[in-house]
Amino acid sequence: MDAGMNGAAAVHLIDGSLYVFRAWHSMPDEFHDADGRPVNAVHGYARFLCELLEKARPEHVAVAFDASLTTSFRNAIYPPYKANRELPPPDLERQFVLCREVTQALGVTVLIDHSYEADDLIGSALWSLRGHGLRGVIVSADKDFGQLLGEHDEQWDYARNQRWGPAGVHEKLGVHPHQVADYLALCGDPVDNVPGVPGVGAKTAAALLAHFGSLDALLDRVDEVAYLRIRGAASCAAKLREHAEAVRLYRRLTRIALDAPVAPGADALRRLRGDEARLDELCGRLRFGPLTRSRMRALLDP
Predict the structure, then answer these.
(1) Tally of CB atoms within 10 A around 293
(2) Which region, left, alpha or beta, applies to residue 181 given φ > 0 means left and ψ of -120 to 50 means alpha?
(3) N or C terminus of the chain: which is more exposed, having fewer CB within 10 Å?
């Protein structure tokens, strides 16, 4: 069991889609299932999940997957949201389903929804479990998650083996966790096709939030911006006035939702005993090697 500085047990919340994509891009095309179809992403993801479960031995754990690339509530608010991203090819889409099956066979809860993204499911689960005395370990490299980190939570970039808490968010972005959604709304997030305010880069956004504290205070006191010691202060004030309505909209996109449908209570994400028959069938179908099979069998009991 992973207990933090304050002795609280941890819930590991894993950004599954990120690690499936990484496996898809990094694993060679030499892995095929019993029908001859490629399963390189599943093999890579299975190795990652086994390694994480072996290292962390979490009592509470869930993997969140994205199923809302075009159907998220954010698309209804702002149709260009993530429009720059290509849909996964059918081969990868099929492998995503198999990765979810592997996860469940190992007794790990899968979180997925067609209106909410993986970020929202992780945020909502963490919000709920905090009330049960659990701290969060968010397994992802994604900077957006910084906004979720409370005093005892941490983010774990698994590939780089780097872990940080709320202070680490400030070191990386120059803003505190409660300012991350405002920061991304101001300087934009090209990954999600959120434009931000023209001419406001990361450093300017951080400086503005350090001075005003929040996006709302900044927009309420926008006349003060022209007098700040930042490059192009007058032009920046004009741009903020011009784009005030748009940047409020962008914050609705960059803020992680905490009301996504996740099962309440700490037991909902407690790791269960794996399903041996289902796992054996999957191992056969996916043609996992003896090493992966033995690792998975050893993980059946949490």
Answers:
(1) 16
(2) alpha
(3) N
Q: Cα–Cα distance between 60 and 125 in angstroms, integer?
A: 11
Mark the ranges of the chain whose per-residue pLDDT is less than 70.
Answer: 1-7, 68-69
Q: pLDDT digit string (tens) for 264-283?
A: 888 889 999 999 999 999 99
Contacts of 297 (CB under 8 A, 6+ apart): 276, 279
Q: Per-residue pLDDT tens for 73-97?
A: 999 999 999 888 888 888 899 999 9
The CATH number assigned to the domain with range 10-166+257-298 reads 3.40.50.1010
Domain covering 177-254: architecture: Orthogonal Bundle (1.10)
- Give domain limits for the chain: 10-166+257-298, 177-254
What region does 194 belong to: left with phi over 0, alpha with psi -120 to 50, or beta? beta
Q: What pLDDT is attached to residue 212?
A: 97
Angstrom distance (rounded) from CA 3 to CA 1: 6
Determine contact, residues 122/66, Cβ cutoff 8 Å: no
**Minimal CA–CA distance to 47: which of 61, 32, 27, 67?**
27
CA separation for the pair 7, 30 (Å, rounded): 45
pLDDT tens-digit readout, 229-263: 988 899 999 999 999 999 999 999 999 999 999 98
**DSSP designation for 67:** -
CA–CA dist 281, 302 (Å, integer):
20
**Helices 166-173 and 180-187: crossing angle, nearest 10°?**
20
The pair of structure tokens assigned to 203 is: 């450093």
What whole-number distance in Å separates Cα of residue 121 and Cα of residue 143?
16
